[in-house]
Specification:
A hairpin with a 2-residue loop joins β5 and β6. The strands form three sheets. The chain has a two-stranded antiparallel ribbon with strand order 1-2. Strands 3-4 form a two-stranded antiparallel sheet. With about 140 residues, it is α+β, with helices and mostly antiparallel strands. The protein is globular. It has four helices and six strands. The protein has one domain. The model has no long low-confidence stretch (mean pLDDT about 85).
């Protein structure tokens, strides 16, 4: 077409602060945060979840809460391709609303792919350690 301007592509960008804002705004209580991480453990086929909350009321700067499960774990590749994708909807990506293991199924609890950010609503530092097939990542 004569006289028309060429199409210009635009790109949406995100500042890393979006992670903090999503965590801070959506998860402001410790029970909600713990619930999200227990749901993640369920989706990873955990049969046991241990939650350690220190009983010291002082809430010192090095106060730590530990949530440990015996789920399937993740490889570095799975961490990068799946876990670190904020907003990834497993139900859509994998076209199913359940997870399978040894011929059994569990309904997936996760929905929006942002529960992993929950800890940022109540903590300055969030550390995740995973072990799969005896290898730690």
């Amino acid at each position: 077409m004569s006289g028309s301007k060429p199409e210009q592509n635009l790109a949406m960008r995100f500042d890393l602060n979006v992670l903090k804002h999503l965590g801070l705004r959506m998860y402001t209580s410790l029970p909600a945060v713990i619930s999200e991480y227990v749901a993640n453990a369920w989706d990873a086929w955990a049969t046991e979840v241990k939650i350690r909350i220190p009983q010291d009321e002082s809430m010192s700067p090095d106060y730590q809460i530990t949530i440990q499960d015996n789920g399937r774990g993740m490889t570095k590749q799975e961490i990068n391709d799946e876990f670190l994708v904020v907003g990834r909807n497993r139900r859509v990506d994998e076209d199913k609303d359940y997870v399978e293991k040894d011929g059994h199924q569990r309904k997936v609890m996760g929905r929006k792919g942002i529960g992993k950010l929950a800890g940022f609503g109540v903590a300055d530092v969030v550390r995740i350690r995973t072990v799969k097939d005896g290898r730690s990542c």
